[in-house]
What does this fold into?
Amino acid sequence: MIATAVLMLLPVVADAATPDKAADPVSASDMILGNPKAKVTVIEYGSVACPYCAQFNETVMQDIKAKYIATGKIAYVYRPMLTGVQTIAASGERIAECAGRNRYFSVIDAIMRGQHEYYAMGENDMLARPVLLRIARSVGIDEAAFGKCVTDPAAVKTLNTSYNRYLAAGITSTPSFFINGKPFDYKGGGIDEFDKAIADAQ
It folds into this structure.
């Protein structure tokens, strides 16, 4: 089992209306890939413990990185939700944060790719700790630092606050996307859907 600080979560309203815009404007505190000054900003609300997010990360996200992020055509913002197994979602996000801004996205990617291991016996956190610890060690976080990282009360409180704010804004599923602040209804069709939406936003 993963030891984490207590998660204080608002109840998810199943029939919440689709928000008209992203919960918060992009700020310096956001984790951003690509060109921060690009005309198009894509925001993903995702979770390292969400199987749909992992599928998106392994497929479409790789195309987005090559076509739009590496070329500086977009700013890509990732905002953490606590969907899926919440202890994994919170611990995984904290490890990425503790790894530092330069390694944040590589850790998010590694944890999502690790789902096939820690969800091998179903969606619970019984197998997650060794996977998360291995990833943490790969970026220089030893076991003692791992424990402190995932249980840091102030950091977990900040994560809870953000998550509850996103829920209150109507963002209740992952992955959810916004392009230039407007909701983008991704239907799972691949990079083609993003191509059109990004082109329209330019």
Remarks:
- The chain has one domain: 31-197.
- The radius of gyration is 16 Å.
